[in-house]
Design brief:
The structure holds two protein chains of two kinds. Chain A is mostly beta strands. Chain A contains no helices and eleven strands. In chain A, a hairpin with a 6-residue loop joins strand 7 and strand 8. The relative contact order of chain A is 0.33. The model of chain A has no long low-confidence stretch (mean pLDDT 92). In chain B, 0% of the residues lie in helices and 53% in strands. Chain B contains no helices and twelve strands. The chains are: A mainly beta, B mainly beta. Chains A and B meet through strand 5, strand 9 and strand 10 of A and strand 5, strand 6, strand 10 and strand 11 of B.
Chain lengths: 115, 114
């Protein structure tokens, strides 16, 4: 079974430019997360989807970040415009909402460098 | 609000010795607890979880963790460390269903010394 797929793996952009990340979750997983992981830190949740609905976006900086999950499958996370402080690894994860928690399965992440 | 504390940024253990990576948590309701491992340039890999039942849970690669409700702890353990266990370890907590908000600790870098 394929895991969570993210692209691109690496991205270098100049500040003030836009950038987008893509995530394909594990087939059948209805919960999708976007996390940001700064160097030497644990992942921090940006947004969580249940199917196509964003049920927790309280940590998403809405002035410059946006996300969508059309049709409740793939998701994109966008930053416009990017700032130097946005340099981090952006992790996508998916899970299956069920009676017995299975935990979240993570993709390899996209390492963003803003210069 | 839920939170996780990993009090040690770095743990060094000699190969073959037992290892412990500490984790304490705070959450409303019943905790669901997870350990993940991260190797360089790799995503987070699931190691084990505690949902309910036996306080000692076993996971991948010979790791186990002990849930202690009174101490609100979920320490990761392994009887005999391998050099290949060197990595960054994250403890995480959620409540209600485990696939709701998953809050991570800051991580502990485990180094196994040959």
């Amino acid at each position: 079974e394929a895991g969570v797929v993210q692209s691109p793996r690496y991205k270098i952009i100049e500040k003030k430019q836009p950038v987008a990340f893509w995530c394909n979750p594990i087939s059948g997983h209805n919960t999708l997360y976007w996390y940001r992981q700064n160097l030497g830190q644990g992942p921090e949740l940006l947004i969580r989807y249940e199917n196509e609905e964003a049920v927790d976006d309280s940590q998403l900086p809405k002035d410059r970040f946006s996300a969508e999950r059309l049709k409740g499958v793939d998701s994109t996370l966008k930053i416009q415009p990017a700032e130097l402080g946005d340099s981090a690894v952006y992790l996508c994860a998916s899970s299956l909402r069920s009676q017995v928690p299975i935990g979240a399965f993570f993709g390899q992440g996209t390492r963003l460098t803003v210069v | 609000a839920q939170s996780v504390a990993q009090p040690e940024d770095q743990v060094n253990v000699a190969e073959g010795n037992p290892l412990t990576v500490k984790c304490t948590y705070s959450v409303s309701g019943n905790p669901y607890l997870f350990w993940y491992v991260q190797y360089p340039n790799r995503g987070l890999q699931f190691l084990l979880k505690y949902i309910t039942g036996d306080n000692l849970v076993k996971g991948s690669y010979g790791f186990e963790a002990e849930f202690n409700k009174s101490q609100t702890s979920f320490h990761l353990k392994k009887p005999s460390a391998l050099v290949s266990d060197s990595a960054l370890y994250f403890c995480a907590v959620s409540s209600n269903f485990g696939n709701e908000k998953l809050t991570f600790g800051t991580g502990t870098r485990l180094t196994i010394i040959p």
